[in-house]
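Blackboard transcription, Thursday session:
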Amino acid sequence: MNERPRESVETLVNRLSETVRDYPQPGVVFRDLTPVFADGEALHAVVHALIDPFQGQFDAVAGVEARGFLLSAAAAYASGTGVVTVRKKGKLPRKTISEDYTLEYGTATLEIHADDLLPGSRVLILDDVLATGGTLGAACRLFERAGVQVAGFGVVLELSALRGRSALAGHRIRSLVRE
Ligand SMILES: O=P(O)(O)OC[C@H]1O[C@H](OP(=O)(O)OP(=O)(O)O)[C@H](O)[C@@H]1O
Ligand SMILES: Nc1ncnc2[nH]cnc12
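(Written on the board underneath:)
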């Protein structure tokens, strides 16, 4: 038996993720996690590491456009719940709620459908990266305005220097790798 030892989720993320300097604008060191999601073993490990601490504590998973969608659909399927989208402005066809926010490289607006989830239900919000926390903070405000309880946040990578955790104070955050 010459099987390789299984890599930890942290090792998989560190080995497979890429770094792109000066993208999408000069001065930003962009961390690209798409190669992590392209690897079957890594995707499986990441999804389970994100949902396991929250099992039984959420009724639906929400993913933030765009890379959060990849995680949220897989996580919802693995946990037997439904999935909803948090989208950039102008993409949803029915009555929406909107929140403006700032992130490392600009400003934007996120939206959900006002009736995506029942008031009183619990949502786990997933994204690939936590940087300033502007994006997840806006997603949180959207669900809370809709009467939905935010069970917590899950991200693959937390860029600690950008202090996103402090923008989400009071909520449980599961990050798989911090740098
Ligand atoms: O913590 P923050 O400073 O808010 O940054 C984190 C957000 O930035 C990236 O998304 P981006 O806005 O680049 O959108 P995209 O996934 O549509 O490319 C990333 O996927 C997070 O959603
Ligand atoms: N440096 C970064 N890399 C990837 N996604 C980001 N979102 C905000 N800052 C980011």
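Lecturer's comment: Helices lie at 9-16, 34-37, 40-51, 67-79, 134-145, 164-167.
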